[in-house]
Amino acid sequence: MSMTPAPESGRDELRWKKVFVALAALLFFITMVSVGFIEMWRLKPRDQTALAYTPADSTSCVECHQKTTPGIVSDWMLSRHSEKGVGCMSCHSSEKHEPDAFEHYGAVVATLVSPTDCNKCHAQIGHEFQISHHSKAAQFIGSLDNFLGEFVEGRQAAVNGCMQCHGSTVSVTKVFADGQEYTQDTGALLDRARAALAAEGARGLEAKVREWCSGAPGLAERVMAAKDLSSDQAVLAVMTHQDFGHVVEREEQAKKLSYRLLLERGRALAQADLAQAGLHDRLAAKVKFDPDGWPNTGIGRINPDLSNGSCTACHSRHKFQVSMAREPESCGKCHLGPDHPQFEVYNESKHGIAFRANRERMNLEARPWVVGRDYTVAPTCATCHMAATRTQPSTHDVGQRISWTLRPAISTKLEHWEERRSAMQEVCSTCHAPQQVQNFYMQYDGLVTLYNEKFAKPGLEIVNSLAKVGAITPAPTQLNVPGVAEAVQTLAGRGLSPNPFDDEIEWTWYLLWHHEGRRMRHGASMMAPDYTQWHGAFEVAHRFYFELVPQARETLERALKAGRITAAQQHEVEQTIDRILARPDHQWLKGLSPEQRREQMKFYRERYGQ
Length: 610
Hints:
Number of helices: 27
Strand order of the largest sheet: 4-3-5
Distance between the termini: 87 Å
Number of strands: 7
Helix content: 40-55%
Largest sheet: 3 strands, antiparallel
Radius of gyration: 31 Å
């Protein structure tokens, strides 16, 4: 049987199909190789081409530090700074009179880069940060937390613990070529600046004040005429509603102005100190940082130039990756643990689960980074508290969208909480319907109110009543409670003075609100049911009913036997406790109703056969 040859046109068509497939495969191969080479170039340190990206004033820095600290140079080469021609001297150059300036191979440099340096290019971000709660994080010296860290636990516990997140005060010593040394105690200098502002106001800074107040007619004169300008509230007091139309803007400007006044006054004092020592025109050969304050990247660090903050707390040097700051782990360096477990709470929440499942779709390197446009799969901490939305710009004021304060023993709504909440709800509405957002906030408010009314306010009332009669030595924070001042005078006759942690019940109360109470509230704020319930409300309830209340009664018994209180005073506090426990919230202590007993018995029989 003979076969009919294929037509010539069919052979040509098959041949062209083969050629087309081969060309397509070759094109795909070339594309993949090109992408691979581009990615390799992007990821590897640009060792061979470093000098091409280095400004002339930083070339010698890069050449030397490639040998001595190659990790720093490698990070910088991969940074956006490098791409934009921002070199070592752009950030590290200094004036010789600066507190941490020294001579380094013919250049005048400073090791520590402060927000003042970053603000030269990032002015708006710097302004937002300076009015934020983050920038004030180092102002925790008088807090119970700091007392525990620095005195109860020990100074080095605070240096290596608290201060690494909150920030330290960085003092510095100039060492001159002839061996002479000069130390700037930064904390003491700042205290002197505050005292000067409180006593003398803004006198001596007329030109600066006129520049800063130029947007509001007459404000400069009022600021310069004011005596006490040592706080934001003091500056706000001299402003009127006409100075800045929006009340929030007025508060922001007050914070900005008080910060600038403090910096200028402090820096003037520092220069006067140098001149008095005859060192104003001399350049140090090297500087030494106080090891209690450095190294430190705490978010509210007080720098030698008196500026607040450390940008590297979130944007780790020398890459300064925006993607790193957007990662939840960046916030988790500080916002975790028994007293403020935001990172763990986020990880438990549906938001955290969605982020981990879709990390590669988060577009973390995008500029700008707008939720609902550049990414939609999940929010991070930065999304809710800082990042841009379709109607809001990004901000470095991390409290701008927070309506409750969850830190203190009793939560309160923040000033302008409605505006703050509206801003946060707009973020929520990117992914959630209005009914869901509204009902979430009703649940959240209900939980915080429950904590306040059932446990926090009654617990504080019990502890305050013990301090009022002298059954415990009051904490300094209780001195404004009516009757406590008199108790302090009585205790002083026995050699006792206010102390927040010398009585066991004070530790119990602290754990109730500072640990379990915060977990309860933070869990609800970020939708983590286990932290709300078992790590929070359950432990609060146990701490209240079976530690705080029994310890209060035991404390009264011991104080009576020791002669510190009278029987009448004991009876007074016992009545307070009984009155609290008689409230409807605590009626369960009297036992279950017959209906509740039957319901529980039925559940366990049907569920477990017990």
